[in-house]
Each structure stands twice: as structure tokens, then as C-alpha cells.
Amino acid sequence: MKLLQQRKKEQEMAKRNGAMREESEEEKWVHDESVDYKGKVPLRSSTGVWKASLFVLTIEFSERVCYFGLATNLITYLTKVIHEDLKTATKNVNYWVGTTTMMPLLGGFVADAYTGRFPMVLFSAFVYIMGLSLLTMSQFIPSLKPCNMKICPKSRKVHEVIFFLALSHISLGTGGYKPCLESFGADQFDDDHSEERKKKMSFFNWWNFALCFALLLGATVIVYIEENVSWGVAALILTILMALTIIAFNVGKPFYRYRRPEGNPLKPIFQVIVAAIRKRNLSCPNPELLYEVPKSEKSQGRLLSHTSQHRFLDKAAIIEDKYVEQKNNPWRLTTVTRVEETKLVLNLIPIWLSSLTAGICIAQGSTLFVKQAASMNLKLSHNFTIPAASISSAAAIGTLICVPIYDKIVVPILRRVTGNERGISILQRIGIGQTFSIIVMIVAALVEAKRIRMVPNSNTMSVSWLIPQYMLLGFADSFSLVGLQEYFYDQVPDSMRSLGMALYLSVIGVGSFLSSFIIFVVDHVTEKNGNSWIGKDISSSHLDKYYWMLAIINALNLCVYVLLAKNYTYKNVQRREMEHGGCSDELEIVP
């Protein structure tokens, strides 16, 4: 009897050991539909996470140094070298920034549908470096230079053509570069592995940290070289930096996890809408009766659970008895997961619209804030004067202070208090950022009112008065921009993640266009009284009133945003959770 019991225990022990070996083997590989550079299932220990993401952060850092080195001082170049007036220069900067941040919509779509993210990053990097090369040529080749004098009374037309052509190449390169690079970096973390998922949440924080460190370097060192050495030397440095980091990015190729393109990401959405319209006369059944593929099938990726919003779309997943062949016709029958993905896209629209005011506030930092600085005392000491555009580095310092404190101190405390892996939900984080944006515009209005009172002696007012509004802008970015990055990566269908990052960038792009539109409307309305709020130069303007108006717009928008956030339903993922001790199937709402 004892012998039988001992054998039974040995058999149970053997089963447990076998199960543990299977679980260990399962954890060894990454089963999130990514592949390694050989096209095989990635080995967890040698691919992805920070070892791969550091290469991605490096090339992002160099690209942002290039971008901010140009963008923060572009209005100075347009007014001093090309001799555009304040209104025209501000509009052109906004148009360029807007175009640069709208182009990712095209690049993200092409990457998700056809090319994949890694090839798109390489192609876009080539286009980007062509733009930097043209910019360098326009400063060194005598026939392409603005003029043959040190101070140009008027720039040559050929120089303007080459200069704007270079900016166009940079915009086009950014179109494929930005949405794919960030989503490619986030792809290095497995959503079904609890430890890697937490690291991914930190990834977006440190991504923004690297971005702001690049802003600090671009707005100080690069701008200083542009103002005190030459624009040509600055452009040459940026071109070399970009070329070196592209090489470094390729060195990391064996460490990356790659996602294959899944075809047109918009097609399944149209299929759901068409199928729902075809079945509009049917009544919605119990959600358990709706069509879904078995979990064992890998063709569809992660499955989403049913939610109660937008119930009309549920009709697309109703199985009709009279159509036997309907399972092979996605225009007649779609899965619950496809229906839920369509709901996710519909949910994005109001959040995207209510986030545009953040883009409008950001646009002020590279345009009107810079012209404010140019009219003030830029001396930090008797022997050292900073370029006007370098004051924007205060925003980067604000973010560099805020992000580590939030990620390393605040989030762990909030995790224990709220039980949320992120500490607070994504939309709560964005809402805090929008609150900071209101404070930014109020402080900017108060500082500008003080400057106006000192006219014509405003050049005696220290530029350090602008530091608070820039640092607050950095705090706002730490919450709103990082939150938007997380939102548009996590809350879109898995097949649309590059396009999701493009939608995040479009918030900044459309915000820039809206800023130009608001300037046009405000100028048109206020100049009728003979005293335009935005005149030909900073001295004849009343930017304090303009900033108060933006503060009111932001406050009203925040009220709408809070209502939307309260009623928002997050992505409901059926996740196969990988823990250190094994794995389990669970349902998770991603907040």
C-alpha cells in the first residue's frame, strides 16, 4: 500500500515537473506574433526590452536634436535672414510644424499596411538626411547662399527655394520616421508578459525624457552655434550626427523584435460598418451568441471582449442562419474583436478633438514665446548673451525634472494606492497635462502684460521672466504628451499602432494649423479697431490679451474633456498572461 502511494506521489511530482518545464519553455520564447531578424519566433533573453530600445532611443535622440535645432530657431532665420515680417514668419513656422506632424498619418498607414516599421524607418531616415544635406549645401555653396555678404539685406530666391525644399524633405522624412520609430520601440516589450508590460509603461516616460534632453541640446548648443558661429556649421553637425546614429540603429538589428504588416488597417473597420448596415433590421442578441474565432487560432492576434457601447455595430457579428457561407465573407459577418476594434477607433475621435488645445499651446512655445524673448534682455551676465530661441530649453528642463520624479517616485506610490499598473489612468494623466496648459497661458499673459507696461524699455526686462511659463509648459508636456503617446499606442487596434502614433503627432500638427487660423481670425477682428493683438512686430502687439483668450479656450475644453473621460470605455483585452511561475488566461481592461 505504501509502495503504491509512493509511486502515485512520484507520478504527481513528475507531472508537476513536466508542467514547470513546459511553462519555462513557454516563457523562453516571445509569442506576441513578433519575429526576430531571421523571421523566427524571438528568444526572450536575447531580443527586445531595453537592450533593443536603447538603439531606438539613440536614433530618436539625434533626430529630435536635428528637429529642435531647426524648429526652435526657424522663426529667427525667417525674420532675420529671409526678412519675413512677424505675422508671415509665424504662419510659415506653424505651417511647417503642422505639415511635419501631419505627414506621419501617411507614413504610419503605409508602414502598418505594407512595408512594416523597420523598413519605413530606414527609408525615412534616408529622406531626412537628404533634407539636412540640402540645408548644409544652401549655406556653403556660394551660388546657393542667402547672399555674399555677412548681413543680407535680401536673400536670393534660389536660396529660399533650396531652403524650403530642404525643410520639405525633413517633413517627408519625419512622416515615416516618427510614427514608426516610437511604435517600433514599444514593440520591443511583450504585452502578455507582466514584467515587460511594466517596462513598456516606463518606456514612454523615458522616450519623452530623451526627447526633452534633445530639445535642451538643440535649443542651446545648436541654436548658439547658429547664432554665433554660422547656420552652415550647425547644419553640418546635424547631418553628421544623423548619419552616425543611422549606422548605430542598423547595428542593433539582431536585437530587435519585428512586426509583419497586416494589410490595410482601415479595411476591417469598413467591413464592420458595412456588415452592421446590412443587418440593421436585426435585433441585438445576447453578446455570448455573437461570432468570434476560437482562441486557438492565431490569425487574428489578441482577442477583445465585448463592450456595451455602440451596440448597433454588434449586429456585424450576428450569425444569420440563412447565410451558410457567411463566415467566409467578412463584409457580411465579422468577429467580436473586429467590432470592438471599430468601437475603439470611434472612441478615439472625441479624445483626439479635445486634445487639440494642447497642440495650440505647444505651438506658442516655438513662435510667439520666442519673439517675446527676442524683445527682452538676453544677457545672463556682462559677457554672455543667450539666443532668444534658447529660452525654450527651460521647457526641456521642466520635463527632465518632472519625468524621473513621476516615473520613479510618484508612480510606485500611486500603484499601491490605486492598484493601477500605471498609477493613474491614461486619460487622467492627459487631463492633468491640460490643466497645466491653462496655467501656462495665464502665466504667459501676466508676464506679457508686465512687458507691455515697460515698453519702450522692455529690452531691460530680463528674459528669465519667461522661464516659469516654459517650465510649466514642460510639466504640461510630461503629462499630456506622454499620456497621448500611451493612449494612441494602447487604445488603437494592434494592427494600427504606427497609425496610432501618427494620430498623436497630428494633435501637435493640427494644433499648429489651428494656431495659425486663430492668429488670422484674431488679427482680422482686432485690427478693425486699429490696434491688432498680433501686429507686424512684438512691440505693436497685445499678446497678453491673446494669451488670456487661449487660457479661456483651454479651460472650456478641459470641461468637455472631463465629461468624455468619465464616460470612456478602455480596450478590453483577453490576455494570455505570462508570469514568472507560469501562465494563465485572464481578461484585462487596459486603462
Which descriptors would you attach to this protein?
about 600 residues; single chain; globular; mainly alpha
Q: SSE order in H/E notation?
A: HHHHHHHHHHEHHHHHHHHEE
Q: Would you count the extended β strands for me? A: 3
Q: Low-confidence spans: pLDDT under 50, at least 5 residues? A: 19-23, 578-588
Helix content: 55-70%
Taking Cα atoms only, what radius of gyration do you get, to the nearest Å?
A: 27 Å
For the biggest sheet, the summary is: 3 strands, antiparallel
Give me the side-by-side strand order of the main sheet: 1-2-3
Q: Kindly, what is the distance between the CA atoms of the first and last residues, rounded to a whole number of angstroms?
A: 55 Å
Instruction: Estimate what percentage of residues fall within beta strands.
Output: under 5%
Question: Count of helices?
Answer: 18
Shape descriptor: globular
Tell me the layout of helices and strands.
Layout: H1 2-28, H2 49-71, H3 74-80, H4 86-102, H5 104-115, H6 117-140, H7 157-186, H8 194-228, H9 231-251, H10 267-278, E1 303-304, H11 336-354, H12 356-365, H13 368-374, H14 393-418, H15 426-453, H16 467-490, H17 497-526, H18 543-566, E2 571-579, E3 582-590
Antiparallel strand pairs: 1-2, 2-3
Provide a concise account of the structure shown:
This protein is mainly alpha-helical. The protein is 64% helix and 3% strand. Helix 2 packs parallel to helix 8 and helix 12 packs across helix 17.
